[in-house]
Automatic annotation (TrEMBL):
It is found in: Cytoplasm. This is Ribosomal RNA small subunit methyltransferase A. S-adenosyl-L-methionine binds at residues 13, 15, 39, 60, 84, 102. Residues 20-187 form the Ribosomal RNA adenine methylase transferase N-terminal domain. The keyword RNA-binding applies. It comes from Metamycoplasma subdolum. One of its GO terms (cellular component) is cytosol. Its EC number is 2.1.1.182. Keywords: Cytoplasm, Methyltransferase, RNA-binding, rRNA processing, S-adenosyl-L-methionine, Transferase.
């Protein structure tokens, strides 16, 4: 098969540094487990994972890459699917899995929320993301990086920053540096996930507005003010000033 070039429409940037490939697998701590890889590409991580895992299911949306990887990797414990991971039904799997992925940056949020919504089926996810995204996931209240994504992910997961990856380790070279993170998924959550995610979306709907103004079309004025008082927040507080714990308590008071 002819040399395969990265395709812009799939956000492809192939990792070329062998040491980083090994390090990603090392920090994912996979060991004779069921693993899902999202976007294996040319198999930079796939070949290493295949030697360590019980089973590996890789989702590749690019027909050419799927064919090449299927031809080159024929181990019995590996399945290369020509399928969009975002369309995968996690109800098909019985046991919890680990996720490993160098995810296309243009669908990072979509993939993260897909994982959050299936937290009961996932042990951990070790992901290569834009460095900016890793900073958002680890952001503190009252910083510009603190956002809906920060709160949503930290509600479901414990976030661990592993290491940074310079853009020169990819071909073609992307515009930004990357980082590898691990999300450790919680076994249970205090409140209904979908309701909580919707609540967080309301809170951060308009960043220039106060929290009160973001909620007033959904909740009663007095209820909002009473809830803010109980979590020891001022009436004019903005959502990005509240910690995850305060947001959880606010949700509890209003629901």
């Amino acid at each position: 098969m002819a040399l395969i070039k990265a395709k812009k429409q799939f956000g492809q940037n192939f990792l070329t540094n062998d040491a980083i490939k090994e390090k990603i697998v090392e920090v994912s701590q996979v060991d004779n487990e069921d693993v899902i890889e999202i976007g294996p590409g040319l198999g930079a991580i796939t070949f290493i994972l295949a030697k360590k895992v019980k089973s590996l299911t890789a989702f590749e949306i690019d027909r050419d890459l799927h064919q090449k990887l299927s031809d080159n990797l024929k181990q019995d414990n590996v399945e290369i699917l020509l399928q969009d991971f975002l369309e995968f039904d996690f109800n098909q799997i019985k046991d919890k899995v680990k996720i490993v992925a160098n995810i296309p940056y243009y669908i990072t949020s979509d993939i993260l929320f897909k994982l959050l919504r299936n937290y009961k089926k996932i042990k951990s996810a070790t992901l290569m993301v834009q460095k900016e995204v890793s900073e958002r996931l680890d952001a503190k209240p009252r910083t510009k990086e603190y956002s809906k994504l920060t709160v949503s992910v930290n509600y479901v997961c414990k976030v661990k920053k592993q290491f940074d990856v310079k853009k020169t380790n990819f071909n073609p070279i992307p515009k930004v540096d990357s980082a590898v993170i691990t999300l450790e998924f919680k076994d249970s959550l205090p409140y209904d996930l979908e309701k909580f995610l919707h609540f967080v979306k309301l809170l951060f709907q308009f960043k220039r507005k106060t929290l009160f103004n973001n909620l007033i079309h959904t909740y009663n004025k007095e209820d909002i003010l009473n809830a803010l008082e109980k979590i020891e927040a001022l009436p004019n507080v903005r959502s990005e000033e509240l910690s995850l714990e305060q947001i959880e308590n606010l949700f509890k008071e209003l629901n």
